[in-house]
Amino acid sequence: MPRTRLEAFEIDHLQVLDEEGRIDEALDPGLPDERLVELYRAMVLAREADQRMLRLQRQGRLGTFSPSTGQEAASCGPTLAMTGQDWFVPAFRELGGMLMRGVPFHRVLLFWGGWEEGNVFPGLERTLPIAVIVASQIPHAAGIGYAQKLRGEKAATVCWFGDGATSEGDFHEGVNFAAVWRSPVVFICQNNQWAISTPLDRQTASATIAQKAIAYGIPGIVVDGNDPLGMYAATHEALERARRGDGPTLIEARTYRLMMHTTADDPSKYRKDDEVEQWRRRDPLVRMRRLLESRDLWDDERQQRLDAEVKKAIDDEVRIYETFDRGRPDVYFEHVYGTPHPEIERQRQEFLAGLQREARDA
């Protein structure tokens, strides 16, 4: 018997706004001027908040964190396409999107400062906390989407993760579950080319990450992840598909982290400066500002006002973070077991005695 072709597949690439800020009129999502400005302002806030966290960490005022500089479009563009009824399921490089959802910046600082309160967003119950464990949030998103389907909600779930997450079993389990049960989930892979020090060609033999969607029987698309309008358009289309009951979509956002994996990392050990500079020329903030300027929506005076507003907002949130009532320093010992334990109590007393010695010797 001769071989017969059962299926044939294609993976599209989408770019709406190029590196010079030129827009493809045929692909323009048609956002009103105020929404374009909102998107740019959100990315500027995310960039400045990220840079402030870096300074705080270097000064010993914040713990290790994962910078998102250079990847703002991959979270802000999709967030603009979401509604309050949609669930926001981040990994750990979606700072811009989280701030757009209304998460107070001081809560993000509390999280990276090591405080449980950084996982709590009052009034934003459909925005999940940061997920540091790679790919752990993907099955959560699949389950949330399935619950939305069972409840008959006209809403969806958007879940972010990195390229390294696609090598985890949780990625397969979550995406496969969502595909089989047609859960309304938009999976966004922030392919920033490096999983810590592992380059993409050591992560997968696939030409694209998006084509992994083919195996699950769902649509996949590659998007210029530094194009905020492309990310908005792809997510908007995927959300519409999810809300009408047609199941999940996998979006590969091709982007780049311009800084370190975390502040405990030295990227110069494994990548070259010229690679970083090539991607720096694709900065999402620069291209978005050029678009606004070409439409007479932005100028230096507006930028100066925005910079001042952002600085004040960040200053205020840092002040809240550093004056936040963190309770007794030994409270953690009360939550190791459900009931008191002699060994834990001994460790508590040793810890408190150490604090007293430090205070006395200071």
Q: Would you write up a description of this structure?
A:
- It is a single chain.
- This protein has a 6-stranded parallel beta sheet, sandwiched between helices. The protein has a two-stranded antiparallel sheet with strand order 5-6.
- It is globular, with a radius of gyration of 22 Å.
- The chain is built from 12 helices and 8 strands.
- It has 2 domains: 12-322, Rossmann fold, CATH 3.40.50; 331-361.
- Helix 6 (169-180) links the parallel strand 3 and strand 4.
- The protein has 362 residues and is α/β, with parallel strands linked by helices.
- 44% of the residues lie in helices and 9% in strands.
Instruction: Estimate the strand proportion.
Output: 5-15%
Query: What does the overall shape look like?
Result: globular
Strand order of the largest sheet: 1-7-8-4-3-2
Name the CATH architecture of the largest domain: 3-Layer(aba) Sandwich
What's the arrangement of secondary structure elements?
Layout: E1 12-14, H1 33-58, H2 72-81, E2 87-89, H3 95-100, H4 105-112, H5 137-151, E3 157-162, H6 169-180, E4 185-191, E5 194-195, E6 198-199, H7 212-216, E7 220-224, H8 228-243, E8 249-254, H9 273-280, H10 284-294, H11 300-322, H12 342-361
Parallel strand pairs: 1-7, 2-3, 3-4, 4-8, 7-8
Antiparallel strand pairs: 5-6
Helix pairs in contact: 1-2, 1-10, 1-11, 2-8, 4-11, 5-6
